[in-house]
């Protein structure tokens, strides 16, 4: 029975994909969207059933579907693993995924290819579930590549715009760079353990039979896996695809960047925690990369004016904080922030979509303002989520971010300072977004002002649900209860110590809260009291221009990688390929010439043939005589 239910959980979104591919164009848009939403909702309800069962008896479900690969001593089955980690992920992937599907019914209703959009969304969720519930690295990799493909299709969904196509290609190619590292790591682990099954690798490492003399190789494998995580979860230096991926429809941004694809790197590192714990130097690299990413992305977010770009850099920064926790061995803390981040970031992305919907496509915050009264539900839900991401007590983000800062303070004071500065910046740019969007006077056109309105209920209902979760979601792991920590203990090797509330903990919480309030007041002073409106692009000068242009990292990549590759490609296309073509065609020309001359000998004259025969025999005899 469990096997059947697990298959239904996995395949339900795929059934929605098939329906929309084959019948979506023949039915109404409402039915197409409803089928797409219900199929994901079925997966969510089954995830709840499995979660309740696991929470009661503590026994994970591991299901082998069939023998997959058997080569010499390497054996692997195609199986599913529903344990504490995968079920937590399933809950918010399918739960928030259902809300985003519901939201999309209204948001995409005017699009002529709505059925295709829902087909891609369903396929994306199917691959994300595959990634999460695979019982080995190879099944995970199928899901890993599948979400990469679907993100390419969704980011470039409005394919008639070349910029959107370029953004989709950028996301696809940069992810492939990380995926190469992931693949190399998989091959190394396959050679080390003769299996890629998580349970079996865990057992091998814990018994030490395969790793005592291979710690260096294990470190290389862990580093390669982390490179894969950097690509998928947008960490330095592979982060530049994510902000550009805002080109896709807003529900795509919410789905990919809040609850699913970008969290895949966090999931994979947490799943392989038994390997990363063996290699503390790799963990140090992860922590440093995470902290650096958090700071760099937060600083870029300070001056962005596109409402979705601000949220995109915020995502990169928050993912950096999660990797910081992973690098410090606090896997449960990273998972805690993944969950709360999924709540408030999904709400913020969908809220930005509501604003863009109300302004008929406008995304520049310099042309917004004063939307608070016209869009009250959007405003209040986004305000709650902004308070959460800023780390204001008692919203969800306060608890999870505070846990990360406490762990950083215990292990490395420099990383704690870096993470704290990034958190202050987060509070500043998020309230900058709120002040520029919802306060003061409206700065758009008269036509936009005349048509300002709140979004329909299919858009606002998901916002309200997500805002409630952003407000109370931190309750799953409050200091003292630590439910999440205890729940995840069976899948984590290192038992991260629980923070008992004492003087130091209260002091750190106070500092974090004061930092967040400072960031908010800083934004209030500039954008409310001084009524400052960001300058037009051409007027930005100095270091602000450097930050606004994202430290010119894209330009650096273009100079260092893209242009040389383009030049090389042009050389192959314009010089080498024609030259090789001429060489190849010359063989054909010579053969054709020989054939043309040779056919002249085919005259039908028996005398000529006999003459040639005699000449040939004479030549053979002469050769044999000389050879002797």
From TrEMBL:
All residue ranges annotated as the NADH-Ubiquinone oxidoreductase (complex I) chain 5 N-terminal domain in the record: 68-118
InterPro entries, A to Z: NADHpl_OxRdtase_5_subgr (IPR018393), ND/Mrp_TM (IPR001750), NU5C-like (IPR003945), Proton_antipo_N (IPR001516)
Molecular function GO labels: NADH dehydrogenase (ubiquinone) activity; NADH dehydrogenase activity
Stored Pfam families: Proton_antipo_M, Proton_antipo_N
Domain NADH:quinone oxidoreductase/Mrp antiporter transmembrane, first and last residues per copy: 135-426
Any GO BP: electron transport coupled proton transport
Location of the protein in the cell: Endomembrane system; Membrane
TM helices/strands, residue ranges: 6-23, 35-54, 86-105, 117-135, 141-159, 180-199, 211-231, 252-269, 281-303, 310-328, 334-356, 377-399, 414-438, 458-478, 506-525, 606-626
CC annotations in GO: endomembrane system; membrane
Broad class of where this protein is predominantly found: membrane
Listed PANTHER family: NADH-UBIQUINONE OXIDOREDUCTASE CHAIN 5
Listed NCBIfam families: NDH_I_L, PRK06590.1
Protein name: NADH-quinone oxidoreductase subunit L
């Amino acid at each position: 029975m469990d096997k059947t239910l697990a298959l239904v959980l996995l395949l339900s979104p795929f059934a929605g994909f098939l329906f929309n591919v084959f019948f979506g164009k023949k039915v109404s848009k409402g039915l197409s969207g409803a089928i797409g939403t219900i199929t994901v909702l079925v997966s969510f309800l089954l995830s709840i059933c499995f979660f309740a069962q696991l929470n009661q008896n503590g026994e994970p479900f591991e299901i082998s579907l069939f023998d997959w690969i058997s080569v010499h001593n390497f054996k692997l089955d195609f199986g599913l693993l529903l344990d504490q980690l995968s079920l937590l992920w399933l809950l918010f992937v399918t739960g928030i995924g259902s809300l985003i599907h519901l939201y999309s019914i209204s948001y995409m209703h005017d699009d002529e290819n709505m059925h295709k959009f829902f087909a891609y969304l369903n396929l994306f969720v199917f691959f994300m579930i595959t990634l999460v519930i695979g019982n080995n690295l190879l099944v995970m990799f199928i899901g890993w590549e599948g979400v990469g493909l679907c993100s390419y299709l969704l980011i470039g969904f409005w394919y008639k715009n070349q910029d959107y196509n370029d953004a989709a290609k950028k996301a696809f190619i940069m992810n492939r760079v990380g995926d190469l590292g992931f693949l190399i790591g998989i091959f190394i682990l396959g050679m080390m353990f003769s299996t890629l099954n998580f349970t079996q690798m865990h057992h091998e490492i814990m018994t030490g039979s395969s790793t005592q003399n291979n710690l260096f190789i294990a470190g290389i494998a862990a580093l390669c896996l982390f490179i894969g995580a950097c690509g998928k979860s947008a960490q330095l230096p592979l982060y530049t695809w994510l902000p550009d991926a805002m080109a896709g429809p807003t529900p795509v941004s919410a789905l990919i960047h809040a609850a699913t694809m970008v969290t895949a790197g966090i999931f994979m590192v947490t799943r392989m925690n038994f390997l990363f714990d063996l290699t503390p130097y790799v963990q140090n690299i992860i922590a440093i990369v995470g902290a650096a990413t958090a700071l760099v992305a937060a600083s870029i977010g300070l001056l962005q004016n596109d409402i979705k770009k601000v949220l995109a850099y915020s995502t990169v920064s928050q993912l950096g904080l999660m990797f910081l926790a992973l690098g410090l061995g606090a896997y449960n803390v990273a998972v805690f922030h993944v969950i709360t981040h999924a709540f408030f970031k999904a709400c913020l992305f969908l809220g930005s979509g509501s604003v863009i919907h109300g302004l008929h496509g406008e995304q520049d915050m310099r042309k917004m303002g004063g939307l608070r009264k016209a869009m009250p539900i959007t405003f209040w839900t986004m305000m709650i989520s902004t308070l959460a991401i800023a780390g204001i007590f008692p919203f969800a983000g306060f608890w999870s971010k505070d846990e990360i800062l406490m762990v950083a303070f215990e292990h490395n004071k420099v990383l704690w300072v870096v993470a704290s500065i990034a958190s202050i910046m987060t509070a500043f740019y998020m309230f900058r977004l709120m002040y520029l969007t919802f306060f003061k006077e409206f700065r758009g056109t008269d036509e936009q002002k005349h048509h300002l309105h709140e979004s329909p209920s299919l858009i606002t209902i998901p916002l309200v649900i997500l805002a409630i979760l952003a407000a109370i979601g931190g309750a799953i792991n409050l200091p003292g209860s630590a439910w999440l920590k205890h729940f995840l203990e069976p899948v984590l090797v290192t038992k991260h110590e629980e923070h008992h509330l004492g003087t130091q903990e209260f002091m750190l919480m106070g500092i974090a809260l004061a930092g967040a309030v400072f960031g908010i007041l800083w934004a209030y002073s500039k954008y409310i009291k001084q009524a400052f409106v960001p300058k037009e692009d051409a007027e930005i000068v100095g270091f602000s221009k450097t930050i606004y242009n994202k430290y010119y990292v894209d330009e650096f990549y273009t100079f260092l990688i893209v242009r040389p590759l383009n030049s090389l490609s042009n050389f192959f296309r314009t010089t080498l390929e024609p030259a090789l073509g001429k060489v190849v065609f010359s063989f054909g020309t010579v053969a054709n010439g020989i054939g043309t001359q040779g056919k002249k000998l085919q005259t039908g004259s028996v005398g000529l043939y006999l003459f040639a025969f005699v000449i040939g025999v004479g030549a053979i005899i002469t050769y044999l005589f000389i050879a002797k």
